[in-house]
Amino acid sequence: MQRFGEGRVGGVLIGDLWRWGMHDEESHKDMDRLWRQLMRWLVVDVADAITFAAETDTADRERVKLAVRVRDRAFKANSDAIVKIEVTQPDGTKSQLFAEPSLKEADLFEAEFFASKSGNYRAATSVEDAEKRTPLGTKAVGWTHDPLAVEFAKLEPNRDLMKRLAAETGGQMIPLEDIEKLPGMLKNIRVPVEVTLATPLWHTPWIFAAILLLLLGEWALRRKGGMA
């Protein structure tokens, strides 16, 4: 026996196994049970043609990644499908999403949902064949969004998160035993501060003076030409 694709394969290499089942009625029942258990064992872990999963982003707890995998009857990747997702929020509000095909895997369709309210969420997907417009199946998943529970799950400082934030923003994480070095470090750190100032053009003195000179010049030309 061994793994084969998404399932298992095994061989019963006993040619006269049937003789055992034909011995008496009880043996026949045992043999029937054996075949049922073997068939169940072969397919128990085989994934359905449509699988649906919801994964909460560890960095942004409000962001939920919805992943739908679609396979045909031969369990081959099916990328020619229309995948609709309906998300029911804790207050009963429903949101309609369309999952887009993944650029990395042929049978994967992905969508994102941002949970703004605390409570239980339920997402149901319906998959249709894009060419024949026939339904291929439905699946549903659920998750709970509770930011306060996640925040207070651990009372100790999340040092790994602080190190990652410091590395991504060009900062530095200082251990508690080196805290006395902080004032000296702040004096040597150059903090680039960019401020955008917007000033109306008409409030600029030289622009106002140039306009005034142009008006006076025009008036002078009109007086000289007898047009004023």
Written description of the protein model:
With 228 residues, this protein is of the alpha+beta class. It folds into 3 domains: 2-43, no CATH class; 50-145, Immunoglobulins (Immunoglobulin-like), CATH 2.60.40.10; 151-188, no CATH class. Helices cover 29% and strands 29% of the residues. It contains 6 helices and 10 strands, in the order E-E-H-H-E-E-E-E-E-E-E-E-H-H-H-H. The chain has helices at 17-21, 25-43, 147-151, 159-169, 182-188, 205-224, and strands at 2-4, 7-9, 50-56, 63-70, 81-88, 94-98, 100-101, 108-114, 119-129, 135-145. Strands 3-4-8-7 form a 4-stranded antiparallel sheet, with no helix packed on it. A hairpin with a 6-residue loop joins strand 7 and strand 8 (108-114). It is elongated and about 130 Å long. The model has no long low-confidence stretch (mean pLDDT 85).
What features would you highlight for this structure?
228 residues; alpha+beta; Immunoglobulin-like; 3 domains; four-stranded antiparallel beta sheet; 10 strands; 29% helix; 29% strand; elongated
Number of helices: 6
Helix/strand/pairing category: alpha+beta
Please state the average pLDDT score: 85
CATH class of the largest domain: Mainly Beta
Overall body shape? elongated
Major β-sheet strand ordering: 3-4-8-7
Largest sheet: 4 strands, antiparallel
Strand content: 25-35%
